[in-house]
Specification:
Number of strands: 5
Number of helices: 3
Helix content: 40-55%
Radius of gyration: 26 Å
Order of helices and strands: HHEEEEEH
Strand content: 15-25%
Largest sheet: 5 strands, antiparallel
Distance between the termini: 101 Å
């Protein structure tokens, strides 16, 4: 082996060692990110009762205006389907009777909350990061549900 071949071989070995270190660093960063993500998801599931409480407080804030017209929200945790970790619902009531309008909030395994409205023309709702859910955001979602219900109402004959 001549000097040029030896230099090329040494350069290739050095490049391989550099890549090994680089890849090991990337692998460590990915593992650390996965561990942080798992902890965040576990934290979201553990903090779900706080989310349901915040949803109840958001409903209470809206009650101050809509209750005088006979409307209320009934907020509770519900059994999630197999695709979700946790679920809660806010049912719209009129004179204490259930209407078809409700908002479901599902905690996805990836740590996002997927809001779904049922009983109203179904708007396109985007999932949001669990820990970004503040009371004002929840109030806006419940207000949107109420608005969709009111806009979609139609006359039902008593005959």
């Amino acid at each position: 082996m001549d000097n040029e071949m030896h230099a090329r071989l040494k350069a290739a070995v050095d490049e391989n060692e550099r890549k090994d270190r680089e890849f090991a660093g990337k692998r460590r960063a990915e593992e650390e990110e996965a561990a942080r993500e798992a902890a965040r998801k576990a934290g979201a599931a553990d903090a779900w009762p706080d989310f349901v409480d915040a949803l109840g407080r958001a409903a209470t804030t809206l009650h101050n205006t809509i209750a005088e017209h006979g409307f209320l929200f009934d907020v509770r945790e519900v059994t999630p389907s197999s695709n979700f970790l946790k679920s809660a619902e806010a049912k719209l009531l009129k004179d204490r009777e259930e209407l078809d309008a409700r908002a479901l909030f599902h905690l996805e395994p990836r740590g996002y909350v997927r809001p779904v409205f049922t009983g109203v023309s179904n708007p396109s709702l985007q999932p949001f990061e669990f820990f970004s859910a503040d009371q004002e955001k929840l109030e806006r979602l419940l207000l949107a549900l109420f608005e969709f219900y009111v806009k979609g109402r139609s006359y039902k004959s008593g005959k």
